[in-house]
Design goal:
alpha+beta, globular, 26% helix, Jelly Rolls, 434 Repressor (Amino-terminal Domain), six-stranded antiparallel β-sheet
Length: 205
């Protein structure tokens, strides 16, 4: 039980941090909530809840918000002031990455969901493979469409995946693959953490 509570506490603090960053970046650009809503496609009421830390935002919706605010997604999870871009590293192969089991994986927490990146970024690679842990409960996000495709395969637990207004219950071994411009959302209505292998395009980070 303590582990579950800690996950919830971490998720709540990240939710508040992301909301504070949204407000900061919006005001820095001189945008009202209405203006940000028009540029991101998210409702004013939802954006207000996100900024106040009372509602979580999914990673795909946050990606659209980041584009509207001209900020990289990782900056919304950074508690420190954004740093200037670092000097470019030595060029990596454009066609290939290799990620070992023991390599330190980047993780992001958004609301009840933890995203663990499963590969390094290759400059000419477009897929974003992730191991996603979705804690039980939380608030249902708004259905949302965006460009690209996404695939989800349930490893453990159960998941409600709504596509174009129709709910589908996914069990271990089930998967869903869709064009992401169709409105969709997912939710864990069980009492345990659900683990999903997710692949999306274009990459979110």
């Amino acid at each position: 039980m303590a582990r579950s509570d800690r996950r919830t506490d971490d998720g709540d603090s990240q939710q508040v941090l992301v909301g504070a960053r949204v407000r900061q970046f919006r005001t820095e650009r001189g945008l009202t909530l209405r203006g940000l809503s028009a540029q991101s496609g998210l409702s004013i009421g939802f954006l207000s809840q996100v900024e106040r830390g009372v509602s979580s935002i999914g990673l795909t919706a946050l990606n659209s918000l980041a584009k509207a605010l001209d900020r990289p997604v990782p900056e919304f999870f950074n508690a420190d002031e954004p740093e200037p871009p670092a000097e470019p590293a030595a060029a990596a192969p454009s066609h290939f990455t290799l990620t070992r089991r023991d390599d330190g994986a980047t993780q992001y927490v958004s609301g009840q969901t933890t995203y663990r990146m499963l590969s390094d970024r290759g400059p000419d690679l477009v897929l974003e493979p992730m191991l996603v842990h979705i804690a039980p409960g939380g608030r249902r996000e708004e259905s949302y469409g965006h460009r690209g495709e996404e695939f989800a395969y349930v490893v453990h637990g159960e998941l409600l995946y709504e596509v174009d207004g129709v709910e589908h219950r996914l069990l271990p071994g089930d998967s869903v693959h869709l064009r992401s411009n169709v409105p969709h959302r997912l939710f864990n209505d069980t009492g345990e953490v659900t683990t999903v292998v997710s692949v999306v395009t274009p990459r979110l980070f």
